[in-house]
Amino acid sequence: MKILSKDKVERVLDKLAESAEVFVPLSRANSSGFYSWKTRNPEKEQLMLETLNVYLSPKNVGFPQTEKMYSIIQSGTEAQIKETFEDSSPRIIFGLRACDARAIRCLDDVFLTRGYEDSFYKARRDNMVLIGQACYEPGPNCFCQAMGVDPLEPEVDIVIRDCGDKGYIWETKTPKGEELTTSISNLLEEKELKAPEAKAFQTQVDYEGVAEKLKGMFEHPIWEDLSSNCQNCGICTYVCPSCHCFDIQVKSWGEEGYRFRCWDSCMYGEYTAEAGGGNPRPTTKERFRNRFLHKLEFFSERYGYPLCTGCGRCIVACPTGINIVNIINEVKEASVDV
Amino acid sequence: MSDKCSCEQPLVPTVVEVVDIQDETPDVKSFYCRLSEGGVPFNVAPGQCAMVSYLPVGEGMFSCTWQEGQEYLQFAIKKVGLLTDELHAIEVGQKLGVRGPYGNGFPVEECKGKDMLFIAGGIGLAPLRSFIKYCFKHREDYGKITIVYGSRSYADLCFKEELFNEWPAIKDTEVYVTIDNPEEGWDGHVGFVPAYVEEINPNPQGVIAVTCGPPIMIKFVLQSLEKMGYSDDQVITTLEMRMKCGIGKCGRCNIGSEYICLDGPVFTLTQLKQLPQEW
Amino acid sequence: MKEISKKVKEIASRLLSEGQVDVFLAWEKGNQDYLTRPLVVRSAEEAERIVFDEYSIHNLSNYLLKFRDGNEKVGLVVKGCDSRGVIRLLEDNQFSRDRLYIVGVCCPGMKDPLKAIKRNSGLLQNIPDDDKADKCSNCAYPNPLIYDELLGSEQEPNVKGERQAKIQEIENMSPDERYEFFRENFERCIRCYACRQACVACNCRVCIFDEMRPQWVGRENNETDNMMYHLVRAYHMAGRCVECGECERVCPVDIPLMLINSKLAKDANEFFGPYEAGIKYEEGSKPALSVYRLDDPDEGFM
Fold first, then answer.
1. Looking at the predicted complex, does its ipTM rise above 0.95?
2. Among C172, C174, C237, residue whose Cα is nearest residue C202
3. Which of 90-129 (C) contact A at CB < 8 A?
4. What is the pLDDT of residue A338?
5. CA B243/CA B262 separation, integer angstroms
6. Do A118 and B257 touch (CB under 8 A)?
7. What distance lies between CA C32 and its chain's CA centroid?
8. Bridge partners (DSSP) listed for residue B20
9. Interchain pair B81, C214: CB under 8 A
10. pLDDT at B2 over 70
11. pLDDT tens for the 302 residues of chain C, in order
12. Residues 6+ apart with CB under 8 A from C92
């Protein structure tokens, strides 16, 4: 088998960064996320391959928080689309975990299927290679397995498995991965290593049957109770690797301007506010309910699996302690009038 | 030309020119658009929508009026917000962006052989008008056509020429018009649409009812239809919600797992009853 | 603290069963020792869930905004800083005093559940071992300034002065250095609006950032729009911020928002004061910047 020894990780990243933008888990300021290897400040920022994961997901690599779409010119009655900005430059995400890889699959299904291919997402995604890291030790807020994700088998092009000091097992899974592996094969060694034993999950949750049960719980009093301490900020939606709602807006000055899209959040009132003044989701309860039903029921109905990948980030980030695991458990326990 | 957006860049509009603007009511105008070189960038089926963009300001989803020959993209737009204020201020010759067509449209084929009952309020007549025009174009395919339409006042009634002159003259067609409050010079019916429908009490036998209007009107019309014995399969409505992408990606126009922009905007009452009651 | 917790539970239970309040705002325990979270209670039975402990850090006065349009009577627990939030709402005419039953708790300083959960998350490095909330080391008013019932023994203020020193350091910077300092901090902003949502002084019905006709601030996540967001918010807070520190605490990317808010509080006091937001409630009183005096200075802020 192919092995990447730990002292060669940085050389591999350097090599890969010659022909692509390589996003790696890094500590940055008091936070952490997937940032370009080239922009790393080695004195201040550490590669975080040996921690559980990072605080900000790699969602923005394929779906940036702000993405310029096309430029416009309007002069009097004349108007034209000047240029579109699909970005097909090569990108690699290195070291993403199975939960975040699953989230990218969610984005793929949203942006590339059901009748329309989003050309902006597609340009990025077609030119992206995923190098995932298998997880052997779930963290305190991890529950990916319960959501149908195998932490040992991230859905990616290449899987690396941390075997301690001896290095990473390097497993190529797809033709895209094959091509990348060839390009750095001189930095890999050929030897046998044994992957570590997987540890048990600390967080127990049973998602079985929840999507089906939720179908009959839209008007259930549980939503009033569960949402009562939500402050309607957008943290959960922005740290979530699979939340993908966006807004399209325009910036214009003089005769020029451009359209861009940016992440939006179903937690905001403005999200569904209509031009005429109405709003179908006027209060916290409706917004909160929509978010969790989207995660746990609606997406399943549309795509066959849940939109929550069990990464646990929203649990860590919520200022008021809202916990999706509790919500699943409460739904499980809730009594529903038949 | 297909009536489904098949372009490679579904979020990027095509520029068209406004070739005519008609005042329908004090706050509704009809806009007729064509490509500068002639023709239209896409055809629409009755009930489909398109995203209209005034480039420096924004985009909005509007029902696109079906017409025979598809010579223009035609939109009846009510002035309600930022974008529509701007649109109401433009003049003929203005270039706009359009993308589409979006949505499923009305089940015009499935309704063939049926009597049709159209119930609309305010600007809600705009989407139904596509279906009505389609029925009149294929008059022999449909049975009796009944149109019930209401607005706040006489001035707010859209498409008056069709409503009072063209449509009532077509054979086997009845047009009922009402306004909310009495006013001088109006000797027609006064009152809200749902009550008027019950007054007319069209027999449900072999009828498909199609309704569109303000959400509150739709709610009461649905109740009235049920009271009059219409089954859920006989009732069709079109919904609207705030939209941004139009292609089922941006998230906001969902009702349950359905996106109004993509899976709607047209639903039968049977379908709606299977969805969360959030419309 | 256990004693206070018990008393809060008793009070809530009494108020709810006697019908003196319809709703009571307090805290409950989550599934970790450090996970204390806000709780909205509507019955004496539910009041059994109430706790008050060292992690009861959230400013519950913010939750009053959820009830401002009704007629419900609301009971709530406030610490010193939170009580200033209540005064903010009263002064802003967002709530009437007679709909409130305020249980004040003299606060010895709180721990921050976010610190604890982040440290244990495996997602972040270098989170200090101490859960003591940063905001509590800059506490001028540990004891509630408005209440119907007071629990606990009076506490001494705890102003370590670090924030003031940092403000002075920024004041002494050149304009370019200062710009760079804020640019670097605002660059991290993800525009989740948690600072706004956690803020009791942010009680506008339609926030300027949600206003679309016209749209005052762009939604792009870039230097210009981020800067615009934070500067506009800072100015709206000037002389109104009650320095509860929740914005800074909830910020997922650690933007030092209280440096700005405290600087503006200081300037509002110096230029238009003496004034400190939310320390005394008097019928009809207004924040310093809501009043015009002929002798107001012409100097701008910052």
1. no
2. C237
3. 113-114, 117-118, 120-127
4. 55
5. 11
6. no
7. 24
8. B32
9. no
10. no
11. 899 999 999 999 999 999 999 999 999 999 889 999 999 999 999 999 999 999 999 999 999 999 999 999 999 999 999 999 999 999 999 999 999 999 999 999 999 999 999 999 999 988 888 999 999 999 999 999 999 999 999 999 999 889 999 999 999 999 999 999 999 999 989 999 999 999 999 999 989 998 877 888 888 999 999 999 999 999 999 989 999 999 999 999 999 999 999 999 999 898 888 889 999 988 878 888 888 888 888 765 44
12. C201, C203
Say which residue the tokens 């306004």 belong to: B179
In degrees and rounded to multiples of 5, residue C163 shows phi and psi of -65, -45
Assess contact for C243 and C262: CB atoms under 8 A: yes
Torsion (CA) A11, A12, A14, A16 in degrees, nearest 10: 160
Are the C-beta atoms of C287 and C84 separated by less than 8 Å? no
Residues from chain B that touch A298, judged by Cβ atoms under 8 A, are 254, 256-257
Per-residue confidence (pLDDT) for residue C302, from 0 to 100: 45
For tokens 């009437």, the residue is: C96
How many CA atoms, within 13 angstroms, populate the side-chain half-sphere of residue C74? 24
Distance CA B180, CA A301 (A): 42
Question: How far apart are alpha carbons B250 and A261 in whole angstroms?
Answer: 10
Instruction: Go through the domains of chain B in sequence order and give each one's CATH number.
Output: 14-102 (2.40.30.10), 115-238 (3.40.50.80)
Backbone torsions φ then ψ of C171, nearest 5 degrees: -60, -35
Q: How far is C215 from chain B (nearest CA, A)?
A: 10
Which A positions 155-214 lie with beta carbon below 8 A of chain B? Answer: none
Give the single-character DSSP code of C126: -
Q: Do A114 and B248 touch (CB under 8 A)?
A: yes
Q: What element of type H or E holds A133?
A: strand A128-133
Beta bridge partners of A80: A73
User: What whole-number distance in Å separates Cα of residue A96 and Cα of residue A107?
Assistant: 15
What are the residues whose beta carbons fall under 8 Å from the beta carbon of C231, sequence distance 6 or more?
none
**Site from A26, A27, A31 to mutate, C interface, most C CB atoms within 10 angstroms:** A31
Name the nearest CA neighbour of A320 among C63, C256, C245.
C63
Angle at B18 (CA atoms; ends B16, B23), nearest 5 degrees:
150
What is the rounded CA–CA span in Å between residue A265 and residue A244? 9
Residue tagged 């921690």 (tokens): A51
Element (H, E) at A227: helix A222-227
Assess contact for C120 and A140: CB atoms under 8 A.
Answer: yes
What stretches of chain A show up as alpha helix (H) in DSSP? 9-19, 59-62, 98-112, 119-126, 175-183, 210-214, 222-227, 235-239, 284-293, 299-303, 313-317, 324-333
